[in-house]
Amino acid sequence: MNAVALGLDRARTEVRTYFRAGDSVLFTFAFPVIMLLVFSTAFSELPDFGTAPGGAVVDAATYYLPGMIASGVLLSGVQGLAIDIAGERGDGTLKRLAGTPLPVASYLLGKAGQVLVTGLLQLVVLLAVATLVFGVDLPREPAAWARFASIWLLGMTTTSLLGVALSRLPRSGRSASAVIVPVTVVLQFISGVYLPFSQLPGWLQAVASAFPLRWLAQGTRSVFLPPEFAAAEPGGTWGLGAVVLWLTVWLAAGLVVTRLTFRWIRQDD
Amino acid sequence: MSPEPAVRVRGLTKSYGSRAVLHGLDVDVAAGETVALLGPNGAGKSTTVEILEGHRLRTGGEVRVLGVDPARADRAWRARVGVVLQSSGGDGTSTVREIVRSTALAYPAPRDADEVIAAVGLTAQAGQRLRSLSGGQRRRVDVALGIVGRPEVLFLDEPTTGFDPEARRQFWGVVRSLSDTGTSIVLTTHYLDEAAQLSDRAVVVAGGRVVAEGAPAALGGPTARTPHVRWTGADGRLHDVVTDEPGAFVARLTADGGEPAGLEVVRPTLEDVYLGLVGEAAADEGGGGPGGGPGGGPAADAVAPAGTGEAR
After folding, report:
1. Are B107 and A101 an interchain contact pair (Cβ–Cβ within 8 Å)?
2. Taking chain A, what is the end-to-end CA distance rounded to the nearest angstrom?
3. A105 CB contacts (<8 Å, ≥6 apart)?
4. Widest pairwise Cα distance in chain B
5. With contacts defined as CB-CB under 8 Å, which chain A residues touch B91?
6. Chain A to chain B Cβ contacts (< 8 Å)
7. Chain A contact for B150, CB < 8 A?
8. Which of A268, B33, B209, B212 lies most in the core, judged by the most C-beta atoms within 10 Å?
9. CA distances from A171 to A89, B34, B90 (A)
């Protein structure tokens, strides 16, 4: 079987394991949905939760939906994979696979497939909750959805690679959550997911701008918020060029680090 | 049988920093042979096996497994080598059949998954998740994963640790049937009966060197198996005499009509021989180590009939 076919089989196994294991289902899959429910409900008494400089108004669910979608992309890739792979390194799974002819590329393809499938399911659940529970109006123009698909896929690829790259960071499978989760939580707070980005101090915006979530969230806002809200972004536009640029830079960084550092096991000690 | 040896190791050395754990190991495994690597903890068995598996880099020496340097393992070589690690890991959410089938896909000519599951005696558990299996059953899954690719060489690293006696016997049957089909097997174990049951040859490693090798029944040479005659003399001293003719010796001993107290004739077991070998190696190292000669009897007598020698 070639590396791609093996990767597809691995993806099937990975998705099955993901839902059977349960931990990721709560902390990675359901988390953005839970947060959408919490924020949308908490601010449901404010019909004009978000007001654009031009006077356009949205409720809390509409405002938070793009942030939670971006957050889901970050969690599925970075948090899900980094913890998952660190766990597999710690419990001996990688060492076992190292003794088989399975190519590393197939293994990583399987992980990517798992992120894509679970991320897509998560997206569907988020959109369903937003529309069915909170009556959020989704964009109707195909162009907006095409733009969303590109940003989402670019984001998924980037965060998946970063997840693989970061999986080397925890010293053990047990410590993986403790090392990775604080990183993703802080990023969500400073990148305009939980708190409106335009209300953060300039220096914090600058810090957040060095990381991909800020750009991802800005990209998803450009799809789901009325065009008037572009004026609230730093620079007064959606800045899609910068969104694509920064996500691509992080994608390249993740690719290089993965290529250089991913090994089944350390042979050198 | 291929003329190429399954494993050829010459002058293998390995150091972790300044600490040398292998001091020039030589091991051969012929095609189709089963070799047991024996040795105390820290002797270098697992390091050796990990180097052979391509999971660890050596410091020096020459290593060939199926003619290939494991440090340059590629997919084609991996497809010919089966590895059963000390612990196989995983979160246990897959079923036996799922994981065996999925693993089989990576090999060019795998065995049928259900056939392999049957071979390790898990047909009844094929649909169960790994985490619901007993330790012995999970270990058999590990073996199934190690053999599903039809390996020419199989590495088994302490495969039966934690097994109950019945599970161990069943497992031995699995290994024998693999050996019968021509698979070369390298087995590390702490159980000498396991080595005696399964291996054509045992290699005793201590202090990073091979201290003895041979058929398990011949390990340590003929003198190591010479029977001991022990008894307690009238003065209360323990006597321990090594002799090739224990019957004749006992006949002479009892010729005066006296019945020696606590008389016994003991043939050293493989374990006695092994402990003797490992103890000698430890003494050569200048360390303490397990002491005692073969038989572990207390040293005694000064008078030895012809053809006998006093135990140390």
Report:
1. yes
2. 32
3. A3, A7
4. 76
5. 17, 21, 87, 91, 93
6. 79
7. no
8. B212
9. 10, 38, 18
